[in-house]
Amino acid sequence: MKYFFFDIDGTLKPYGQKIPQSAKETINILQKEGHKIFLATGRRKNEIGKIMSNMNIYNAVCSGGATIIIDNKVEKEEFFSQYELRNILYECKKYNVIMVSVGEGRCYTSYNGLRLKPYILLMKLYSRCKRFRVGSVEGGCGANYTDIKTLSEEEFLNQPTQKIIFFNSRHIEKIDYLNNYTIYNERIWRTIEFDFKEKGIEYIIKKYNVDINDIVVFGDGINDIGMFKYVKNSIAMGNSCEEIKDIASFITKKSNEDGIEYACKYFGWI
């Protein structure tokens, strides 16, 4: 039995498109053959429910490795610490960067000025585009990021946070506390999020006593680098970034060219 981990955006779901029928059928066959299927995504748990339900997938490493879902139940969850949030907020205020924390289904900020409104309007407009992205998450989740509630600073720092959005961020490079994070650059905002999917996979390995050779990961982006380095069987989509292709054990076809099906047939898994 193999344990398969599929990234969503750019892997299972081609950017700006629906999940290919071939990918759905491949996962269905893998499950019938007795293999375990996991999503491995930067999306938060409220952003993957529809995909899990439609594809009969019950397990996930989501929020970039911070949340583990087993049999549709959250088994482990990790958030930015209040210490981290406080330090980031302090530097954001110093450089007039607007900091927005992403919670479960909505966003929060302690900023109480007029500069945020134009950014929200622009984000709402961009969210209608197929290529709309917030960090590693692409399309279909736009409404989650435009519902921003203003809180007091202490309330803001107490919110469970797994992703942070920055507006008015032209001086973000000066924020030293962000040096340890990958900063995703969008048109009018920037984002940091957890990108340690390998920690989620490690948790699954220990829980089920799985041999590392029985782990297979599929991915395409920079937030997949950790899990590609961690396992031996790493499959890069044909549309992957070069950093992923360079370390993959196999490069399949593009996600919109039946790449998942192609790889699984190539290795005899289906």
- β-strand amount: 15-25%
What is the second-level CATH architecture of the largest domain?
3-Layer(aba) Sandwich
Total domains: 2
Question: Termini separation (Å)?
Answer: 12 Å
Describe the structure.
GO terms for molecular function: magnesium ion binding; phosphatase activity. InterPro entries: Cof, HAD-like_sf, HAD_sf. It comes from Clostridium butyricum. By secondary structure, the protein is of the alpha/beta class. It folds into two domains: 3-78 and 196-266, Rossmann fold; 82-193, Hypothetical Protein, Haloacid Dehalogenase-like Hydrolase, Chain: A, domain 2, CATH 3.30.1240.10. It is 31% helix and 21% strand. It is built from ten helices and 16 strands. The chain has helices at residues 21-32, 49-55, 82-94, 116-126, 143-146, 153-157, 197-208, 225-230, 242-247, 259-266, and strands at 3-6, 36-40, 60-62, 67-70, 73-77, 98-102, 107-109, 133-134, 137-138, 148-150, 163-167, 184-185, 190-193, 215-219, 233-236, 250-251. The radius of gyration is 19 Å and the shape is elongated. The chain starts with a strand and ends with a helix. The model has no long low-confidence stretch (mean pLDDT 93).
